[in-house]
Amino acid sequence: MTNPDSLLWTPSPHPEWLNMMNREGSYLNLAAVVPLDEDSLLVHAQRATGLQDFGDDLWREPFSVLVTSLEQEAQLTLMGRLMARSDIILWLSTRLQVTDTLKKNPVILDEEIIAPTIIVGLPRSGTSILFELLSQDSDVGVPLMWEALQPCPPPESATYTTDLRIEEADKLFTQWNRVAPEFSSMHEIRGDIPAECGLLTAGTFISDHCAALHQTHSYSAWCGSADYLPVYQYHKTILQILQWKNPRERWLLKSPEHQVHLDTLLEVYPDARIVQTHRDPIKCMASSTSLIGTLYHMRSDQPFNTQLFENIIMGEATAQRLEYVIEQRERGVVPPENIVDSRYQDLMDNPIDCIEKIYAHFGMALADPTRERMLNYLRDNPRGKFGQHSYEVDESKAMDRVFSVSYTHLRAHETVLDL
User: Fold this and answer.
1) What are the backbone dihedrals phi and psi of residue 195, each rounded to the nearest 5 degrees, phi first?
2) Residue 201 pairs with which residues in a beta bridge?
3) Of 71, 323, 391, 405, which residue is most buried, by most CB within 10 angstroms?
4) What is the DSSP letter of 264?
5) Which of 258, 409, 192 is nearest to 320 (CA)?
């Protein structure tokens, strides 16, 4: 078991304007000034949209757990409460609009989602750069941050690049960089870049996106034992809405969280093309600690508790996560034709060769124009373009078991990992 002290991380100081704002906020009755109770959130979303019907009730329990956990555990600052309230009202509003859109246009549910390419892996294992490179293929559709945040009304081809929601989302998401300037060196964030699937499923209130923003142990624990089939069904519904008036030949999707739900994912997308990334797990855990700690620090000044994210930043749980995928692949729950491995160092050393192998596994050809766009992207976006993401890890305390499991995992599928 990893000692949390082996993953060293200290938050950067807040900008002075944020310190002043939160300090003044601490003198107020924040629960009254920025309410996070269920009734207030529900009523505001209904008033904002003019809609009443949230659809099925499967979201209500996790919504209630999240709101209670925010009040009792998250220790939110004034900025934290403002951001949390804004997020939840947007997620509720989206749910109302999705329900209304489907009632008015039931034909949307006839849209086919064919052979989506889905990137999975430990957080910080190269999923983002692979996502960005694969998105250079003009045949793929990638959900962008703005449409994942507000998928209704359904985006249209004619106005897709000029939709007013792009600027609105950009202001909201780039706020993260203003609240925590160091975040820009960890993860690019804008309104018009590819979105992870956690944002698509936020309206279910069973989502790693919701869990990643606050230290809400009770909510994370609830999600850990939840039934994810309705989550993936809602995920598919959002894709159907997004492609209804703006067709996508095939979807490219990404979320590290898919790694622990591959069986459910394949139940909803039986022809999915899964790309699993692999990187030294110690580096993944250290980098994840820095990223998640920064997200928490945007909204709360309480110390970062690594135990709350033990499934991705603690050795024993990370080993179990990898073992679970091994077991599913060995039993054929995840058939070999549905999954291919991508090694982080290969992607860094020979990105085009790495991508050609992925395409070949799924019987696809990497067209010359696509290869050229990928090379141009690499040229225009060198590593460290937005600053260097620095983090520390105590190698002397690194867990032997997680190394062993990761190595065995890759060897079992004819991939070599240099640690």
Assistant:
1) -105, 145
2) none
3) 405
4) H
5) 409
Classify strands 117-121 and 140-141 as parallel, antiparallel or unpaired.
unpaired
* Amino acid identity, position 369: P
Report the alpha-carbon distance of residue 263 to residue 329 in Å, rounded.
Answer: 10
89-102 as b/e: b if 16+ CB within 10 A: bbbbbbbbbbbbbb
Give the containing element (helix H, strand E) for 117: strand 117-121
DSSP assignments along 377-417, one per residue: HHHHS-TTTT--------GGG--HHHHHHHHHHHHHTT---
What is the distance between the alpha carbons of residues 413 and 339, in angstroms, rounded to a whole number? 10
User: Is 312 or 157 the better-scoring residue by pLDDT?
Assistant: 157
CB 172 within 8 A of CB 26: no
With helix as H, strand as E and coil as C, how does 318-373 read? HHHHHHHHHHHHHCCCCCHHHEEEEEHHHHHHCHHHHHHHHHHHCCCCCCHHHHHH
Contact 355, 133 (CB under 8 A): yes
Give the pLDDT score at 304: 80
Number of H helices, E strands in the chain: 20, 5
Q: What is the identity of the amino acid at 58?
A: L
CA pair distance 228, 262, nearest whole angstrom: 10
Q: Which residues pair with 118 in a beta bridge?
A: 253, 274
Structure tokens at 161: 């690049």
CA 167 to chain centre: 21
User: Tokens 């934290």 sit at which residue?
Assistant: 80
DSSP type of residue 12: P
Number of C-alpha atoms within 13 angstroms, CB side, residue 206? 24
* Structure token pair of residue 248: 């996508």
Beta strands in 135-272 (DSSP E): 140-141, 250-254
Rounded Cα–Cα distance for residues 169 and 237 (Å): 21
Apex 301 CA angle, 299 and 307, nearest 5: 90
- Give the span between the Cα atoms of 245 and 403, in whole angstroms: 47
Q: Report the sign of the C-alpha dihedral through residues 105, 227, 86, 71, in that order.
A: positive
Instruction: Tell me the C-alpha distance between 54 and 56, whole Å.
Output: 7
The helix/strand/coil state of 261 is coil
Beta bridge partners of 277: 121, 342
CA distances from 247 to 46, 181, 242, 311 (A): 30, 36, 8, 36
Calpha distance 223→206 (Å, rounded): 6
> Would the pLDDT of 124 be above 80?
no
